[in-house]
Amino acid sequence: MIQTAHPSPLPLASRGADALSGSLAAPGDATLAQTALMLAGLAVGRSTLCGLTPTSELVASAEALRQLGVAVAMDGRDWHVDRLGPLGLLEPQAALVPGSAEAATLLLGLLAPYSFTTRLAGPAARLAPALGEALAPIGQVRSEADGLSLRGSPLPLPLQGTLEGPDAPLKTALLLAAAQTRGISTLVEPAPSQDHAEKLLSAFGARLSVTEDETGGSTLALAGLSELRPQHIAIPGDPALAAYLALAALIVPGSDITIENVLINPLRTGLIDTLLEMGGDIHFVNQRLVGSEHVADLRVRSSRMKGVTLSDAHSAAIAGDIALVAVAAACAEGETSIAGGTPALAAVLSAQKIDAKSQDGRLIITGTGRLEGGGKPVSSTDPRLAMSLLLLGLVSRKKVALEDAAGIEALFPGFVDMLRGAGARIESPKGRQP
Question: What angle do CA 51, 54, 55 make, to 5 degrees?
Fold first, then answer.
């Protein structure tokens, strides 16, 4: 059994801040970086990926590629990837340990056209059996005690399939397999999902066509075994993580910050769009095309926001970051209704004297214009909840305390120091620094 090291608990507390200012930056977008790294491992020659944030998840993927014969050299935030093209991967001599379920899914697709058996081990691999079933047509996936195994097979025929719904990791995995399969594979997507894989495949020189239909779906046709050209790809900042920096400026009076180099792919800006809908003063400046993606700097100034009612679809799209929207709602005027909020989150917010309740499957928050804070230290280790509560403390009359904020650094390296540098008051016990 693989043991995972956990950081020691790190208590933190935030309190009322003066106006925030300066230029800040979100970590490089992990989804885009993960996909670019896998495709660079199939290109002929050296690709350079710039602006990567070396999270444990991304480092694990780099190590998995090394075990498959791909040379990955890390030079700070610039990574150099060398390989010999499609179907050039080698059989690994030990189990691969993916850093997330998404990475496990991409590795399954990457290795499906190979006749050897690959083992994926660790906590992330154990989350993937259902995803493995979806990949069954291109490889036999079996659950094991500490993960799963894949027995791939060179596919004599191109792939033909239809996704049941929006599923970007599965779509990317199938495209990675199709890129190494002779003939033209077609994949029908009934509803839009993140399109980084399509854009990156085109940038690497793959012969890929996307035909949209009148219902919003599309059909992807990819010619396999095309030679992929090495690329120099700049990875912009994660728009969801940028939203945490944006909210800090929106709620602290007098704030004016710039968040540099943010990915503004419309399929990825759900959180920023929510803050805009609430009346946030966010301007997209210096818009440009970087490689295959649209990027901008965000100028964010403090704003008087209003409550909103989010549809079920909108709420589902930002489900992992509902705590952030809840804090925005607490700072806004009027009622905000979000589908899917849990009673546990409502209880955490109520403990900080926020008018929050879970009712009929929705989280209802009423902004009152006064934020008290001062509840007992929150014990959750969810980094998104921890970051959201730290932002809440910046505008509360009493401090908001966390028993353990150690997970923040893994998700958003430098988050606390960046806010401190902009003027936030975030305290840690004497001799303990994040």
Answer: 130
Locate the domains of the chain by residue range: 12-28+236-427, 30-233
Instruction: State both tokens at 250.
Output: 């929106």
**132-141 — which CB contacts under 8 Å span 24+ positions?**
132/108, 134/167, 134/170, 135/105, 135/108, 135/109, 135/170, 135/173, 135/174, 135/177, 137/161, 138/109, 138/112, 138/113, 138/174, 138/177, 139/108, 139/111, 139/112, 141/108
- pLDDT tens-digit series, residues 378-397: 988 899 999 999 999 999 99
12-28+236-427 and 30-233 in the same fold: yes
Q: Which residues contact 82 (CB under 8 A, 6 or more apart)?
A: 45, 46, 47, 70, 71, 73
Could you tell me how many helices (H) and strands (E) the chain has, helices first?
A: 15, 21
pTM of the predicted structure, to 2 decimals: 0.91
CATH architecture of 30-233: Alpha-beta prism (3.65)
The DSSP element (H or E) to which 288 belongs, if any, is strand 281-290
Question: What confidence tens digit (pLDDT) does each residue in 111-120 have?
Answer: 999 999 999 9
